[in-house]
Design goal:
- There is one protein chain.
- Helices cover 37% and strands 17% of the residues.
- It is α/β, with parallel strands linked by helices.
- It has a single domain, classed as Ureohydrolase domain (Arginase, Chain A).
- Strand 5, helix 6 and strand 6 form a beta-alpha-beta unit.
- Bound molecules: manganese (II) ion.
- The site of manganese (II) ion (MN) has 6 residues, from loops.
């Protein structure tokens, strides 16, 4: 049964998280703090194609105070936890990819309230984001959240189930590949992800079990030809069509507990093409969840 099903109309909560503190800590190009606003503007122009199957709710923005990323992530965790516990589906509009940290912790919290296990992560990303922790007191950044989450899963006595689609050899050090192997990460390199069939094959095989899913989309997984307005553009990134088909498959599966979209970084006025692309991917996701595609 789909997660949260059985409560009538399914509610999708859009939660803006306009921060790029983690990107700056990771020494990346800032700009993702304006991502949620540009995503909202792009989403507002899209038509509604479904009836009563879904209700879309804009939960507004969670904004950091005085650079307090940790406090912001606590707030995101509590909000996502409450949404999931009530049977709702969170869509987190980043923000840097570090927002996946608070989102994941919130999913763990909300799913536990429903007596469901912690979610498996399905990430679309050029990067593993398994870098060593940052300095004491401010450890989280946009390149290490899955390492922090792996440690926390270990403290709960369970492995982090983490699958990544679109990994670039040119964007991850050898030590990161070793770290991923050590943690049992499944990944599909970008150069093997050239067709929808390749991605669907990856998603349909591999891990056994029917854990809920945390789906996370770092928009730098997409080719820079289509998604230039990100912190770390990837010239050999994925074709948007294969990402679209992967997302539609996951949305239809009924196993997704939450979705986040990160790293859209509209750095200049008028540079909203990447936001529009991400908004159309969200449009496809929502329609797949509604069964209206
Ligand atoms: Mn990335």
């Amino acid at each position: 049964m789909p997660i949260g099903a059985g409560s009538g109309t399914r509610r999708i909560w859009f939660i803006g998280c306009p921060t790029d503190i983690g990107v700056s800590r990771n020494k990346g190009r800032p700009g993702a703090a304006r991502g949620s606003g540009s995503l909202r503007r792009a989403l507002a122009n899209l038509p509604v194609r479904f009836g009563d199957a879904l209700e879309l709710i804009d939960a507004g923005d969670l904004e950091p105070r005085d650079g307090d990323l940790e406090g912001l992530m606590e707030g995101l965790e509590l909000l996502v936890g409450a949404v999931v516990a009530s049977g709702g589906f969170p869509v987190v509009l980043g923000g840097g990819h570090e927002t996946a940290y608070g989102h994941h912790r919130g999913l763990v919290r909300g799913l536990a309230a429903l007596s469901l296990p912690a979610p498996r992560i399905i990430s679309f990303d050029a990067h593993f984001d398994l870098r060593p922790e940052g300095p004491p007191g401010a450890p989280l950044h946009s390149g290490n959240m899955f390492r922090l989450l792996a440690r926390e899963a270990g403290e709960r006595g369970e492995p982090l189930e983490y699958d990544v689609i679109g990994i670039q050899r040119s964007a991850n050090t050898l030590s990161l590949f070793r770290e991923a192997d050590g943690l049992g990460v499944r990944y599909l390199p970008a150069r093997e992800a050239g067709s929808p069939e390749a991605i669907l094959g990856f998603l349909r095989t591999g891990r056994i079990g029917d854990r809920p899913l945390h789906v996370t989309l770092c928009t730098d997984v997409i080719s820079a030809a289509h998604a230039p307005a990100v912190s770390a553009p990837q010239p050999f990134g994925l074709d948007p069509n294969v990402v679209l088909e992967g997302l539609r498959h996951l949305a239809r599966s009924g196993r997704a507990a939450g979705l986040d979209v990160a790293e859209v970084s509209p750095r200049y006025e008028g540079d909203d093409g990447t936001a529009h692309l991400a908004a159309v991917l969200l449009f496809a996701w929502v329609n797949a969840m509604a069964g209206s595609d």
